[in-house]
Amino acid sequence: MSLEIQTRNMQERTFCKWLNTKLEANGYPPMTSLVKDLSDGVRLIQLMEIMGDTSLGRYNKNPRMRVQKAENATKALEFITSRGVKLTNIGPEDIIDGNLKLILGMIWTLILRFTIADISEEGLSAKEGLLLWCQRKTAPYKEVDVQDFSHSWSDGLALCALIHCHRPDLLDYDKLDKGDRHGNTALAFQIAAEHLGIPQLLEVEDLCDSARPDERSVMTYIASFFHAFSSMGTSDRIFIIRVSVFMGNADQAETESRRVENFADLMQSVWVIRTDYERRARLLLANLEEVQNQWAASVFTGVYIDAKEEQSNFNTYKQTTKRTWVTERQDVITLFGNVQTKLKTYSLAEYVPPKGLAPSDLDDAWQRLLKSEAHRSRGINAEIRKIKEDLRKKFADLANAFEKRLHDVSVELTMIEGPLEDQQQEAKEIQKRIPLLSEDLAVVAAAEAECMAANVEENDYTVFTWQDLEFELELLVQNIAKKISFIDNQIVSRNMTNLTPAQLEQFESTFRYFDKDETNTLNQMEMMAALASLGIVYSDQDMDFIYEQLVADYGAVTFEAFINLLVGITEDQTTPDQLLESFQGIAHAKPFVTELDLRLAHIPQTAIDYLVKAMPSSPNESGEPEYDYASGVGVNADCLTAYQDLKLGKKHKFVIYQLNAQNTEIVVEKTSSGNYEEFLESLPEDQPRFAVFDFEFEKEGAGKRNKITFFSWSPDGSKIKQKMVYASSKDALRRSLQGVALEIQGTDLEEVSYETVLDKANKGA
């Protein structure tokens, strides 16, 4: 069982027993269930009439309908509220529907009001006063250490100490077995019920076996001890006074002179006490009025630090000055009581304080102080909430406005159009506004710092933080710089009339790729890498000279300097890309050309004769040759012979092909009749290859099958240039090998494993 459920059950039992003591004392039958017995409102009205010592008038004594029960519950709740008891979140429907949590809270409020609220010990009231009373009464007992209303009562010794302190005749504390927790608790319960008239509101298990005895239940029970012993103490004092008076009259003759002397001493002491009372009462009233006047004159500045200082000063007042006044008030009231007691002892007229100094005046002034304190506390809290709300709105307004400006600038940047020079000028004008935006962002940062200083963590008026806006501003700065660089590069590209569009695109993408810091310039290492990626390589000495010359001419290796350098290098040269574009145009985007395509392009016959001899070819379905212009790699005749020996003659199990050392022709590297394991061992780990394998397998329900499988082997460890050459040469070989049934691409042994190939072969079989 969870601690929460244990606490609820303990409260329900204790509170029900406490209410039953009220009901049974007035002739009503006890309740068995708070939820059931209070649901119609009848018992609640009876309890209120008992506690309030008044009648609530007519009500439904046998309600049957829900509306009648609601009327009863409402009447009881209104009576509780009229007695100054504040109820929270409970209505008649909660009582009718048996909301146990709220019902327990209501009963606890009643216990506080009618049992615990009037407890006072040295100026402390309610819980603190009751705890101090318990601590003082049990202080002489070394095994008892009362620190709370929970664990401190779990061994029964604190209860036995309270009883022994006031009625040592009821139990011998020294003879208790200090380790018998259950026995000590049960003994205290029994003595309290039988000899002190204190009903047993708790069970032994509630204190001894609970992980944490419920504080409210324990307080309710201990308050019964306070009231029982306080009442007994008053009777004892009255008895002593009466005995003293009786003894004083025993020998009147001998004491007449002494009586006059005592009377004079009495009146003198009364005068001293009365004077002290009036002086201290005036001073206390003046102090109470002064602090209230100070609070009334106080004006909030609207600054969070100042409001927190006011709150700190108020809390310090409550913990120091007010506690001093609480003690002083109690002492002053005690002085007044002492005066009256002395006068009453000699049947003298009661002391009537000067106007405005009566105990009732002190009580009225104290109540005004409490109201002023509540008003002051609410005022400070409201000011702090207002300041926090104002800070939220201030930051939100600044952040939202700043984000809108960033958005507007971003939109303005994307809307730039017209001649490139005009676009360039507009972009630079936008760039000039960045410093002002940075200054405004600092204002946003300051507003966020104010919010953090005031512990404002959430803000429903904006979704932005200063960090969000800083990131967006940095992104905008980068976009503006990129836009300007792009426009500058377009102006340069526009003026380069001696380069093809494809060349310009290639050179521009290369420049952007190696411009790692996006400054639209290249350092020497970046320029060297960019040229190398285009196939242009210089010695270190030449590269130093070229870089220094460009910096001297342009101030840095800008896009314009880079393009002009490439123009100087490639001018009047036909690049491989240009040649490839020309062939693609003649072939109408086909991966091959025919002799007819070349004639239609009006190429001279002598050139056509050379091209058809130089380009690798393969026959189409009509037997006409198709020339591979893309790879420029030929297929050696031995490649086809070895393939035919595998396909038709069954002389080989597999053939492995490679490019020759000049990368101009595909040749046979190896033929073998070995198995698939030997085939895999023949594939190099760090070099691409082509291969065909006569793959034999058995398909379920269809017998043995054979599939000639073409392999394009390009392991991850291969050099990039090798991969590119083999990739561009593949079609030349593949078109030459007629009858291939399955094609496998492999970059590691897993992708060309026997199981992988078998799976693909079965799917297509």
From TrEMBL:
Name the UniProt record assigns to this protein: Cofilin
Single GO MF descriptor: actin binding
A GO BP entry: actin filament depolymerization
Compartments, record wording: Nucleus matrix
- Tell me the ranges covered by the ADF-H domain, including all copies: 632-762
Gene Ontology cellular-component terms listed: actin cytoskeleton; nuclear matrix
Start and end residues of each EF-hand domain:
502-537
Q: What Pfam families does the annotation carry?
A: CH, Cofilin_ADF, EFhand_Ca_insen
Record keyword Protease present: no
- Predominant cellular place of this UniProt entry's protein: nucleus
SMART domains for this protein: ADF, CH, efhand_Ca_insen
Q: Which residues cross the membrane?
A: none
Q: Which InterPro entries match?
A: Actinin_actin-bd_CS (IPR001589), ADF-H (IPR002108), ADF-H/Gelsolin-like_dom_sf (IPR029006), ADF/Cofilin (IPR017904), CH_dom (IPR001715), CH_dom_sf (IPR036872), EF-hand-dom_pair (IPR011992), EF-hand_Ca_insen (IPR014837)
Q: Which UniProt keywords apply?
A: Actin-binding, Calcium, Repeat
The record places domain Calponin-homology (CH) at 9-115, 124-230
Q: Give the highest taxon in the source lineage.
A: Eukaryota
The UniProt entry's sequence similarity note says:
Belongs to the alpha-actinin family.
